[in-house]
Amino acid sequence: MSLISNNFENEMLQALEIAKSALATGDVPVGALILNPEGKIISTGHNRREIDNDPSAHAEIVAIRGAAEVNNSWRLDGHTIVVTLEPCAMCAGAIAQSRIKVLVFGAWDSKAGAVGSVWDVLRDPRSPHQVEVISGVYESECAALLSEFFKKYR
After folding, report:
1. Which has the higher per-residue pLDDT, 4 or 25?
2. pTM, 2 dp
3. Catalytic residue selected from 9, 17, 50, 60
4. Which CATH class is domain 9-148?
5. Are strands 102-107 and 132-134 parallel, antiparallel or unpaired?
6. Is the pLDDT of residue 146 over 80?
7. Alpha helices of 2-138 — where are they, by DSSP H?
């Protein structure tokens, strides 16, 4: 059983390992995990867009679907999601819609980030559900994994 730490470093290290699983499928290496209110990991996910031919198969969406199945409910009140990259607008919306309490992320996404970089979907005062956001956990390690991946395509 994983206990929630104050800085989420252990959880982010686990998310980084999950992200590396995407490399075998040719997907962008982003990993996510969801902790229940007691701090136990109940779901994980990595990007699966390439392998599933599914534009919505981002790590966060995969993990949220798994957590909803485990809980037998779409409501993830009190849960925490840890992800290696700042969520995009789609994923930020899914985090809000699932009622996740806390988002922890590593690297910033200056092109498509929707939690402070380009937009700030989760902290918009008009949003009906507020999510606590913790950013920059193992930021350089998360960014380095992505940079190495994209060097192959440039």
Report:
1. 25
2. 0.93
3. 60
4. alpha beta
5. parallel
6. yes
7. 9-20, 49-52, 59-71, 89-97
